[in-house]
Design brief:
By secondary structure, this protein is mostly helical. The protein contains five helices and no strands.
Length: about 100
C-alpha cells in the first residue's frame, strides 16, 4: 500500500468514526498529511474494525504494548508542539495569513 493509499484509508477510518461521515477528498487528505505523521497511519488502521476500544483491545488490534501506545502519543504531541507554533493572535492584522512563530 502506498503512502497516499494509507492516508486515504486513515481518512475513511476517521471519517466514519463520528456521527456524520465526511467525504474523503483531496482537501481532507492534505489536512491529514499536515496533522498526522506517517508513522501514525498504522496506529490509526487499528481502529478500522472497531472505532472505540479499551486499552486491552487497542493493544491487541495495534500490536503495541501499553507503554508503546502512551509513548507514541506523547512523542507525537511533543513533536507537534515544536513544529506547529503559529501566530494566531495576529492573523487578522495579516489578512488571514498565518505565520509560523518558531523554528526548532
Amino acid at each position: 500500500m502506498t503512502i497516499d493509499e494509507k492516508y486515504k484509508k486513515a481518512g475513511e477510518i476517521i471519517s466514519t468514526a463520528g456521527g456524520t461521515p465526511l467525504p474523503v477528498n483531496d482537501t481532507l487528505i492534505k489536512l491529514l498529511k499536515f496533522f498526522i505523521m506517517e508513522d501514525e497511519l498504522d496506529f490509526i488502521a487499528a481502529f478500522a474494525e472497531k472505532k472505540s476500544q479499551t486499552m486491552e483491545q487497542l493493544k491487541q488490534s495495534s500490536g503495541l504494548s501499553e507503554d508503546e501506545i502512551n509513548k507514541k502519543d506523547l512523542k507525537n504531541w511533543l513533536k507537534l508542539g515544536k513544529e506547529r507554533q503559529w501566530d494566531y493572535k495576529n492573523i487578522d492584522k495579516r489578512k488571514g495569513v498565518l505565520v509560523k512563530l518558531t523554528d526548532f
